[in-house]
Design goal:
271 residues, alpha+beta, Fructose-1,6-Bisphosphatase, Chain A, domain 1, D-Maltodextrin-Binding Protein, domain 2, 2 domains, 6 helices, 28% helix, globular
Length: 271
């Protein structure tokens, strides 16, 4: 019989591939509407959210679920999945081939497994992060099942740094790296773990944007640096996470925090 973690990884892989195959059929054709927070949603988001929640309920009936489109209150369960059915909905709706499906598995309120699948790129990231838990589990971060590691390159104007649309104000001052904007919070941060960029900032990510990548980027050796004093995890049972944002800086190694943090810390003040 497969062990628990093999089952978890196989479930995430097969489920996101199945959902992703249908989303590719809808890609570029979905009609988007605006939610109360100004972000976009499509029927494809809602369909994928339901498919993922139903699949989890069948495979792991004792696990809770928190999802972007439906359930925002953290449940009173030892294990909980946090799902983002389409991260990068604007890209998805407009035909830009950079968007993904994100699944994070939390144990007692803290992520321990993350899986992000980007169907247009046929890239699947996953990782295991024990942290302070008492679990016996694998370790490491992977892209298409090949280990990844954050870069140790010296900071220069030829190295990349990703920003989000809500953090462009940081460009008012000179910046020591080449800036990129990808439009997908998960991929923005994952690029650090994959060794592509030296750093990334997200001004207003929600819990479904970060639950999976929090695991993967740290398992790849990158550093997760919160731009606010309140700790990110563990989550609180019964709390509604609809409006909660997590301004975050991710860097490939700790010595880069003093170089980037003074330049990006202002984004936290507007969340």
């Amino acid at each position: 019989m497969p062990d628990f973690w093999t089952t978890v990884k196989s479930f995430a892989e097969s489920t996101t591939q199945r959902v992703g195959a249908q989303l590719l059929q809808d890609f570029g054709h979905a009609i988007a509407s605006e939610k109360d927070d100004g972000s976009l949603v499509t029927q494809s988001d809602q369909w994928a959210d339901a498919e993922l929640r139903n699949a989890i309920a069948q495979a792991f009936p004792d696990h809770g679920v928190l999802s972007e489109e439906v359930e925002h209150i953290f449940p009173d369960t030892e294990w909980c999945w946090i799902i983002d059915p389409i991260d990068g909905t604007t890209n998805f709706a407009r035909g830009l081939p950079l968007w993904g499906i994100s699944l994070g598995l939390l144990y007692r309120g803290t992520p321990v497994f993350g899986y992000v699948y980007l169907p247009p790129l046929q890239q699947a990231f996953h990782g295991f992060w024990q942290g302070k838990s008492d679990l016996e589990m694998p370790s490491g971060a992977f892209l298409n099942n090949t280990p990844i590691q954050a870069s140790r390159a010296t900071l220069s104007n030829n190295e990349f740094f990703n920003i989000c649309a809500r953090s462009v104000s940081i460009l008012k001052n000179p910046f020591p790296a080449k800036i990129r904007i990808l439009g997908v919070a998960t991929y923005n941060l994952l690029s650090v773990g994959a060794g592509v960029t030296l750093g990334s900032v997200e001004a207003t990510p929600k819990i479904w944007d970060i639950a999976a990548v929090w695991v993967i980027v740290q398992a790849a050796g990158a550093v997760w640096y919160s731009l606010e004093s309140e700790p990110t995890f563990p989550l609180t049972v019964g709390k509604d996470y609809t409006q909660r944002s997590y301004p975050t800086l991710v860097v490939s190694y700790a010595d880069l925090i003093p170089a980037f943090e003074p330049l990006v810390k202002s984004v936290a003040k507007r969340t």
